[in-house]
Amino acid sequence: MISNILENIRHPKKLLVGTRGSLLAVSQTHLVMKMIQDANPGLEYEIKTIKTSGDEGIDILGAFVKEVEQELKKGNIDVAVHSLKDMPTQLPFGVCIGAMPSRGEHRDCLVSRNNLKLSELPTGAKIGTSSLRRAYQLRLLRPDLEIVPIHGNIITRMKKVEDGLVDGVVLAAAGLDRVDMNHKITQLFTEEEMLPAVSQGILAIEVREDDLETLAIIKSISDSHAEQAAAAERAFLSALGGGCRMPIGGYARMVNNELVLDGIMFNEDGSRYEMESLSSAANQGAELGANLGKILLERFGQKIN
C-alpha cells in the first residue's frame, strides 16, 4: 500500500485541462501548465478545447467561461484556465479559483498603422475597440478620435489595422505577450492614461472544490501578489454591482508594504466619471475594494446612468 502511494507521488495523475480554442487561450493554458509541470515533475496533461458563447458572438456576462465551467462541473475536465478578467465575480456552485500565477503585463496597448503613437495619429483617426472602458478613456486623451466597435480575437482585430479599416486598435498587452507578438505593440499606456480592466493580466486556474488532489497540485504555482490584487480589484467591481463588461477600470499593486488600489467608473454614455485611490494592509484587499466601490457609488448618488 505504501509503495502504491509513493508511486502516485512520483507519477501524479494526468490532468485534463479545459480552455477556449483561440490562439491566446491555448497559448496561456500551455504557459500555466508548464509552470505546474515544473513544480510537479512527472505530471502529464492534455488540453481539451471548448467552444463558448463568446466564441459564437453571444454578448453576455461570462460568455467566455460558461461552457468551460459546465464541463468542469460535470467532471469532463479536471482544470479550467481562464483570463480572470473574463470571469464574473460570482462563481458557480461547486467550483473555485484554486490558483493564480504571477501577474502578466496589466496595461493596455495601442497597435497602430505606421507605428504612430496615440499623440501622433491624425485628427479624427479611427481606433477600434469594443470596450467602453477603453473607449471612454481614449476620449479623455483624444476627444477627436472616432471609436469603432470591433470584435474577434487579437489576430482578427490586428488584421483590421493591416487592412486599413482602422488606424489602430487597443488591446491587452498581456495577450500579445503570451502569443509572442509584443513586437506589434506601438505604445503601452500608463495607468495614468488608461486604467486597465479589473484583473487584466491575471490568469485563473479553476477546479472543483472537492477535488483536493488537483487543488494541491495547482496551488504550487499560486502567487500571493496576484491573489491580493485580484481580491481588491474584484471586490471593487462587485461593490459596483458590475460584471466584467461595465465601464470600470481598476488596478491594485503593492507600494511600500501597502496594497494600493486605483479605480475609475463611467456612467453609461461616458459623459461623467469618477476616480479615486485607496490603500490598505496587503491582507485586506476585499475590504479595500469594497470601500473604494462604496466611495464611487456615493459620488454617483448610488446610481450609474
Fold blueprint:
Elements: H1 2-10, E1 15-19, H2 23-39, E2 45-49, H3 66-74, E3 79-83, E4 95-99, E5 108-112, E6 126-128, H4 132-141, E7 146-148, H5 154-162, E8 168-172, H6 173-178, E9 187-188, E10 203-208, H7 212-218, H8 224-239, E11 248-255, E12 258-266, E13 273-280, H9 285-299
Parallel strand pairs: 1-2, 1-3, 6-7, 6-8
Antiparallel strand pairs: 3-10, 4-10, 5-8, 5-9, 11-12, 12-13
What does this structure look like?
The chain is an alpha/beta fold and 305 residues long. It is built from 9 helices and 13 strands. The strands form 3 sheets. It has a 5-stranded mixed beta sheet with strand order 2-1-3-10-4, sandwiched between helices. β6, α4 and β7 (146-148) form a beta-alpha-beta unit. α8 (224-239) packs parallel to α9 (285-299).
Q: Would you summarize the structure shown here?
A:
This protein is of the alpha/beta class and 305 residues long. The chain has helices at residues 2-10, 23-39, 66-74, 132-141, 154-162, 173-178, 212-218, 224-239, 285-299; strands at 15-19, 45-49, 79-83, 95-99, 108-112, 126-128, 146-148, 168-172, 187-188, 203-208, 248-255, 258-266, 273-280. The longest helix is centred in the first third of the chain and has 17 residues, at 23-39.
